[in-house]
Amino acid sequence: MTLSVQQRGSVFLVLALSLLLLGITLSFSGHDWQRVVQVGVGVCAVVYGLVTPAGRLVDRPTAIGLALVLGLGLVSTWLAHQPLWALTEWALMLTCGVIAAAFARLRRNGDQALDQALILFVLLLCLIKTLQYGYAGVLAFTSGDTTLDTDLLLGGFSNKRFYGQFQTFTLPLLALPLLLASTSRLTRGLVFALLCAWWLIAISGGTRGTWLGIGVAAVILAFLGAAGRRWLAWQVAALCGGLFLYWLLFMVLARYLGLEIASLSNDRLTTSLSGREVIWWQAWDMIRERPWLGFGPMHFADIPNPIAAHPHQAILQWASEWGVPSALCVSLLALRGGWATLRVIHRQGPARSPQDLLRLCLFAALLGATVQAMVDGVIVMPYSQLWLALVVGWLMALHPWHTPVVEPMPLLHRAWQVAAVLAVALLVVVVYRDLPGSTERSQHYIDTAKGHLQPRFWVQGVIAPHIR
C-alpha cells in the first residue's frame, strides 16, 4: 500500500514529536539521550525527504550560500587536527538543516491543522514538565529536610541552562492561544495559568540568557503592531503571575516551614560573565591564529580549558572553528531570513489570521534564541538544536513567496540528498560506537581531569586525545 504525501507527513510528524516528547520527559533524560533522540529525528527527516516530492524551500542566493558554508566546512574539516570529529560536527549541522527542511516540507504539504497540532504539542509538553516540576516541589517541601535546592526541581536536562534554552523557544509559543479570537474563555484561563507556571520555572531556573532573549524579543515585538503588543501584554501579565508564585512558594511558604532555599534566582541577578571571558578570549585567539578556515568544526573542544568545550557565543564559535568567511556567510543568511520574516510580519494588517499570529510567535522564539545564542550554547545542545530546526523550518514553510514556486536546482538538490544521507549515516555510526561506554568515559574524565563535564557532542565533550 502506497501512502499519500499527507499520510507520509503524518507519520513523520508523529515520530518526530514523539521523540521530542521522550527527549525530556523520561527519568533518565539528559544530554546523551537527547543526542540520540536528535539523531533519531534526523533519520526520520532524511527518509521523509527522500519519499516526498521535492519543492523549493529557499531561493537561489540562499541555496548557494548554504552550499558555500558546507563546502568551506568540508575544507576546514580536511585540515583539522581530528578530521573525524570535525566531520561529525559538520554532519550534525547538515542534519539540523535536514530536520528544518523536513518540517518546512511537512507544513508546505499540509494545512493549518498542522499549526494546531504543533501548538497542542507545545502545550502538552510544557504541561508535562510543569507537572513534573510541581511533583518535585511537593516532595521537596514535604521531605523534612531543612534545605531546599531549587535546581533539583528542574528535571530532564543535564544542566538547568539547557532547560532555560528550551523555555526560550516555548515561552513565546505558549502565548498563541491567548491571541486567537476563537479561544474560549475557559481555555484562555487554563493556558494563561500554564504560562504563569512556565514563567515560574523560568524564574526559579535563573537562566539569565532566557531572560535576556525573551526581553529583547519583547522589545522588538512591541513595535510590530497591535498583535505584537498584545503578545507583550500577555507575557508581562504571566511574568507577574510567575513572580507572585515564586514569592509565595520560595519566600512565604518556605519561611513558614522554616526551610532554607538554595540557588535562589535573585542570586543570579548579576553582570558577571561566569567565566565566559576566558573562553571568549580563547575563541578570539583561535580566530586570530587561523582566520580563514578556523581550527575545524568542534575543535574548540580540542583545546582544553577549565570552563567549557564551546565558547558560549555562536559567532565566536563558528568563526574560530569554521573560519571568518563561513561565519560571515552564516550571519548574512540569518540576517536575510530574519529580515524577510520581519517584513512579512510588519506588512500584516490589524486583523491577523491564526497563521499570521503563529508566524509572530515563531519569530519571537527565534529572536529570543538568537539573542541567547550570543551568551549560551543554543547552537550546541541537542534539544536546543532540534527546536531551532523546528522553528526555522516552520517559519520557512509559512513564508509567502511572491514568485512561482519552482523545482530546486537539480545539481544542488541531488548533492543535498546524497550529503544528507551520508551525514545522518555517520551520526548513526558515531552513536553506535560511543553510546554503550559513555557513562564510563564520563566518569574517567572526571577522575582524570579533576573537573566537571563539558558538554559538546556528548555530555563529556572534550575531544583532546590526551584528555579523553
Secondary structure elements and pairings:
Layout lengths: L4 H21 L5 H21 L8 H19 L4 H26 L3 H30 L5 E3 L10 H15 L1 H4 L5 H21 L2 H14 L3 H33 L2 E3 L13 H14 L24 H9 L1 H24 L6 H19 L9 H17 L11 H25 L3 H12 L19
Parallel strand pairs: 1-2
Helix pairs in contact: 1-2, 1-5, 2-4, 2-15, 2-16, 3-4, 3-13, 4-15, 4-16, 5-8, 6-8, 6-9, 6-14, 6-15, 8-10, 9-10, 9-14, 11-12, 12-13, 13-14, 14-15
Secondary structure category: mainly alpha
Number of strands: 2
Determine the N-to-C terminus distance.
Answer: 49 Å
Beta-strand residue percentage: under 5%
| Helix content percent band | 55-70%
What is the helix/strand order? Answer: HHHHHEHHHHHEHHHHHHH
Query: Uncertain regions: pLDDT < 50 for 5+ in a row?
Result: none
Q: How is the largest sheet built, in terms of strand order? A: 1-2
Q: How large is the count of helical segments?
A: 17
- Dominant shape: globular
- The whole-number mean of residue pLDDT values reads 91
Number of domains: 1
Major sheet:
2 strands, parallel
Radius of gyration: 22 Å
Written account of the structure:
- The chain has 468 residues and is an all-alpha fold.
- It has one domain (5-449).
- It is built from 17 helices and 2 strands.
- It has helices spanning 5-25, 31-51, 60-78, 83-108, 112-141, 160-174, 176-179, 185-205, 208-221, 225-257, 276-289, 314-322, 324-347, 354-372, 382-398, 410-434, 438-449, and strands spanning 147-149, 260-262.
- It has a two-stranded parallel sheet with strand order 1-2.
- The longest helix has 33 residues, at 225-257.
- It is globular.
- It starts with a helix and ends in a 19-residue tail after the last helix.
- The model has no long low-confidence stretch (mean pLDDT 91).
